[in-house]
Specification:
With 312 residues, the chain is an all-alpha fold. The chain has 14 helices and no strands. The chain folds into two domains: 144 residues, UbiA prenyltransferase (Tetracycline Repressor, domain 2), CATH 1.10.357; 129 residues. It is found in: Membrane.
Length: 312
């Protein structure tokens, strides 16, 4: 008998035949995962400005801040899809990123690019419909920064740190723009330094993983000592700035809740630096889900600040 050669399988599906239901479900689930919903926690930054101003619990600002959160979830997912589509080759060299839906082949590149464009357009349309033009401008700025980072800026040493940290600051500023809250210099400085701390910690953790320099070209230009020093400078400046704000003269003398918030704030910064120094900073958002001590410290900080802002 003559053996019959197996029929080649078309990875995109045979022409004229619908894809198998399991394949469709797998691709759909992969696309949702590629949008990185776990990282949407970063977009909670849009709530911080109205919360610090004491208006977050009012119905209108709460609705505006909630809508802004959704807008930035759409915009950030568009950036993640574009980044992963452009990084397919490098991600396949990474022990964890190689399992991402686009790198593993579960989501075709053309679907990733198309979905990114749709999400970005939806975010812009929603920001325009929400009303405040500063918010629309910030969404445009965010999408511009994330796109420029993916295409070119991530290959520029130090600039890559500033751009990613800047995206966090844009999120925070958008919350103020959406709710009409004026951002203080104290707020902007603390958010900027905190963002730089987390971004630098992520690069440091990536560099500590041996053999991963090829997955991100700028890592070859950094050293662990340099990144640790940047992290130390950012942490120190952030602590000083926060203390100056918390201890500024107010209506009531003595130990106010705002002054008392220095203690949990300091503990949060110290805990973050400890975890990053152990190499756990590659996915900063995961620390909030996994580290119980950090959760308790952040909870204590939130309670004390809430007493300061919303208390009598």
């Amino acid at each position: 008998m003559t053996a019959t050669a197996p029929t080649p399988v078309d990875p995109e599906g045979a022409a004229g035949s619908p894809p198998a239901p399991k394949a469709v479900r797998a691709a759909g689930g992969g696309l949702v995962a590629a949008c990185r919903p776990r990282q949407w926690i970063k977009n909670l930054l849009v709530l911080t400005a109205p919360a610090a101003d004491g208006v977050l619990l009012q119905p209108v600002p709460l609705a505006q801040a909630g809508a802004t959160f959704v807008i930035f979830c759409l915009a950030s997912s568009a950036g993640y899809l574009l980044n992963d589509a452009r990084d397919v080759a490098a991600d396949r060299l990474h022990p964890d990123k190689s399992a991402r839906p686009i790198a593993s082949g579960r989501v075709p590149l053309r679907i990733a690019y198309l979905t990114a464009a749709v999400l970005a357009a939806t975010a812009l349309a929603a920001a325009f419909a929400l009303g405040p033009m500063p918010l629309f401008g910030l969404v445009v700025l965010y999408l511009t920064l994330t796109t420029a980072y993916t295409l070119a800026l991530r290959d520029l040493v130090v600039v890559d740190l500033a751009v990613v940290a800047g995206c966090h600051v844009v999120r925070a500023a958008a919350g103020g723009a959406a709710t009409g809250v004026a951002l203080s210099n104290w707020y902007l400085i603390v958010v900027s330094l905190g963002s730089l701390l987390l971004v630098t910690g992520r690069r440091e953790a990536e560099l500590r993983l041996t053999g991963l320099v090829g997955t991100r070209p700028t890592l070859a230009e950094y050293s662990v000592d340099y990144l640790a020093n940047v992290r130390s400078v950012a942490s120190s400046a952030m602590i000083v700035t926060y203390c100056l704000w918390a201890l500024a003269p107010g209506t009531f003398p003595g130990l106010t809740p705002r002054a008392a918030s220095i203690v949990p704030f300091l503990l949060v910064v110290l805990r973050l630096n400890l975890l990053i120094g152990r190499g756990a900073g590659e996915q900063p958002e995961h620390l909030l889900f996994q580290d119980r001590q950090l959760q308790l410290m952040l909870g204590a900080l939130a309670v004390v600040l809430a007493a300061s802002i919303y208390g009598p």
